[in-house]
């Protein structure tokens, strides 16, 4: 066929059911909001939209860019706000018709009031608009809830493979290439899903996950079109929450079933071994106190805004301040009131500030400290992963031996440049405390003498508590020691795109 037209758009938000921070329309406007067609001839589009564009251009396809929005992870949206954003994206699709394919950037873990599966809802509506013959696909974050509605409504779902997500653009390009192959009839994707009956954390920059991910990549050859590990998102209280393997083959369901089950059982055998060792807050403070050499980077993972936490918890930072540890650089703390006070004083201003501890009981007690304002940056922006991450106004405070970066928009700390922007040199610090769980690694590992992960009483507790959930499907490890005690696996196979009369039906086979 001649060169086609592909519609691209984004609606991405990760929902933490336990977060005290609301998600609304303003959350998207604060983070990323691009109207239809506004990216135009920009040198670089935000990832993964840039990956969509590059792949389409390589095949001579025209790109119709619809609404592209993303928000920092937080609590569920209201039904009205979700419908407004969703319908704007769908209206842009209608305006772009006819199209030869649809590629969306979705998250996979988005929840709104009354809509526990936003991605499934979006994809079903897209399918209804374009009909059965137009290939529809999405690239998604692996911290997602893979649902039947998502699999049935899309021809292809491709998830980022790396955590931290260093392969966003690559996976987006792969999606568009496969959608074009669908459109010209070169492939007929069939999806197979294996439920691993577990929830865990899979850090792919280290073993044993490094070898697992490399083997996933190597498996993509011949009839195997795509292999994705869907990590699941532990703080999304929905029935489908959990780890799953998703395999697409070119019309070969038995092969897909075998590959999905093989990787799924292999992953289950690794349960409990894929999360780095966790330090308690006292252990982290003691390590920091005696640290020498290249910077010790402490990840305050339980208060990571990138997972829906407020970013104002004081447990770890307070322990470091109380211990009188010198040479510490820490951030990013979310505290709009403090930022306003410090900005009004300006560089060199001194005052007694109340820091953090405001958003929820998980935030800990506020810190009342004497501090000096070192710098103020208006409309600060953090650059990472092809995105601009707005921080709002930001300040750097000096509290004894600790320099603390505070911003008035909630965002995780992912790159050392954010400290340089405020006038601090992270390479010269003895200890760096970052409010992030894993996305900071790519930026900080080159300057770190050691990276350590800290478990504090924050919103994103990594140890798990079954009592927090009301909707979770069971059995599931670690809440149930042997979820496969019945001897059954769970394989779901979806029909290929050409089998339109069967679209929406699934076969469930016990392994």
From TrEMBL:
Composition skew (Basic and acidic residues), residue ranges: 496-511
Stored InterPro entries: MlrC, MlrC_C, MlrC_N
Co-factor note (free text): Binds 1 zinc ion per subunit.
UniProt-listed Pfam families: DUF1485, MlrC_C
Annotated signal sequence range: none
Keywords: Hydrolase, Metal-binding, Metalloprotease, Protease
Entry's family note: Belongs to the peptidase M81 family.
Name of the protein described by the UniProt record: Microcystinase C
């Amino acid at each position: 066929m001649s060169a086609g037209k592909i519609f691209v758009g984004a609606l991405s938000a990760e929902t933490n059911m336990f977060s005290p921070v609301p998600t609304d329309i303003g959350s998207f406007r604060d983070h990323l909001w691009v109207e239809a067609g506004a990216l135009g001839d920009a040198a670089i589009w935000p990832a993964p939209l840039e990956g969509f564009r590059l792949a389409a251009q390589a095949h001579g396809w025209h790109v119709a860019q619809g609404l592209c929005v993303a928000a920092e992870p937080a609590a569920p949206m209201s039904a009205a706000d979700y419908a407004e954003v969703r319908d704007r994206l769908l209206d842009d699709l209608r305006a772009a018709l006819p199209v030869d394919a649809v590629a969306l950037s979705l998250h996979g873990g988005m929840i709104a009031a009354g809509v526990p599966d936003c991605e499934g809802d979006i994809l079903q509506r897209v399918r209804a608009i374009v009909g059965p013959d137009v290939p529809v696909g999405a690239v998604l974050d692996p911290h997602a809830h893979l649902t039947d509605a998502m699999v049935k409504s899309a021809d292809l779902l491709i998830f980022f493979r790396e955590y931290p997500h260093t392969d966003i653009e690559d996976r987006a390009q792969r999606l568009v290439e496969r959608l074009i192959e669908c459109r010209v009839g070169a492939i007929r994707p069939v999806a197979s899903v294996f439920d691993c009956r577990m929830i865990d954390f899979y850090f792919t920059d280290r073993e044993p996950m490094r070898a697992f991910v490399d083997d996933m990549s190597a498996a993509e050859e011949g009839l195997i079109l795509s292999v994705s590990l869907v990590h699941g998102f532990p703080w999304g209280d929905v029935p489908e929450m959990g780890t799953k393997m998703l395999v697409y083959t070119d019309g070969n369901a038995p092969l897909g079933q075998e590959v999905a089950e093989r990787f799924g059982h292999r992953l289950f055998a690794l349960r409990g071994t894929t999360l780095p060792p966790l330090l308690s807050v006292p252990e982290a403070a003691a390590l920091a106190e005696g640290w020498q050499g290249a910077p010790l980077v402490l990840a305050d993972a339980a208060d990571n805004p990138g997972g829906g936490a407020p970013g104002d918890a004081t447990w770890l930072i307070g322990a470091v301040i109380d211990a009188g540890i010198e040479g510490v650089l820490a951030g990013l703390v979310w505290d709009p009131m403090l930022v306003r006070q410090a900005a009004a004083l300006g560089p060199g201003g001194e005052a007694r500030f109340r820091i953090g501890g405001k958003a929820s009981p998980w935030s800990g007690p506020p810190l009342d400290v004497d501090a000096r304002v070192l710098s103020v940056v208006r409309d600060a922006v953090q650059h990472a992963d092809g995105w601009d991450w707005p921080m709002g106004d930001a300040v750097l405070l000096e509290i004894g031996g600790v320099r603390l970066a505070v911003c008035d928009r909630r965002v995780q700390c992912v790159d050392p440049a954010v400290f340089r922007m405020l006038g601090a040199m992270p390479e010269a610090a003895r200890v760096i405390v970052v409010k992030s769980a894993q996305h900071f690694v790519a930026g900080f590992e080159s300057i770190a003498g050691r990276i350590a992960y800290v478990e504090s009483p924050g919103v994103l507790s990594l140890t798990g508590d079954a009592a927090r959930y009301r909707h979770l499907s069971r059995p599931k490890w670690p809440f149930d020691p042997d979820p496969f005690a019945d001897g059954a696996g769970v394989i779901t196979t979806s029909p290929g795109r050409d089998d339109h009369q069967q679209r929406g039906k699934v076969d469930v086979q016990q392994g």
